[in-house]
Specification:
single chain, alpha+beta, five-stranded antiparallel sheet, two-stranded antiparallel ribbon, 4 helices, globular
Length: about 140
């Protein structure tokens, strides 16, 4: 990201500012490696679904995803990761720290190193449970 300062120069925005924006939005930012393991996670102050961020590092992003109609919902996501395809506008049910089911909306982009090799994915999660409840009423 770039912005113009008061002097008219273009300056890089800092990571803290981006994290502050995400925290305000209630979304969660994450990075996962090619195996789907979380390498970075930040966002809402309460952690992801009630799990502290430090407990998430090294785990699969999909570790609390629940089964839907007898199928493990993470299979389709892991297939996309294995194929090197981004996850775009996908919704999945997750179990939060209290055992409640939350509907999470997920988007990712591919992440590359300086040599152009894919090293993982960067993405955002949003809890859309309230929207689902609103539309059901």
């Amino acid at each position: 990201m770039k912005e113009k300062s008061e002097s008219g120069r273009v300056e890089e925005t800092d990571r803290k500012r981006l994290i502050d924006f995400v925290t305000c939005s209630g979304d969660w930012l994450f990075e996962i490696n090619n195996d789907g393991e979380i390498t970075f996670f930040t966002g809402a102050d309460s952690g992801f679904l009630g799990y502290p961020y430090d407990e998430l590092i090294g785990k699969s992003l999909f570790f609390r995803m629940i089964k839907v109609r007898g199928e493990t919902a993470d299979t389709r996501f892991l297939d996309l990761i294995a194929e090197g395809k981004p996850i775009i506008n996908q919704q999945a049910p997750f179990e939060d720290h209290n055992g409640e089911i939350r509907d999470i909306f997920i988007n990712t982009v591919l992440m590359y190193n300086s040599r152009g090799e894919r090293i993982g994915f960067r993405g955002v999660c949003r809890d859309i449970t309230w929207q689902d409840l609103l539309f059901k009423e």
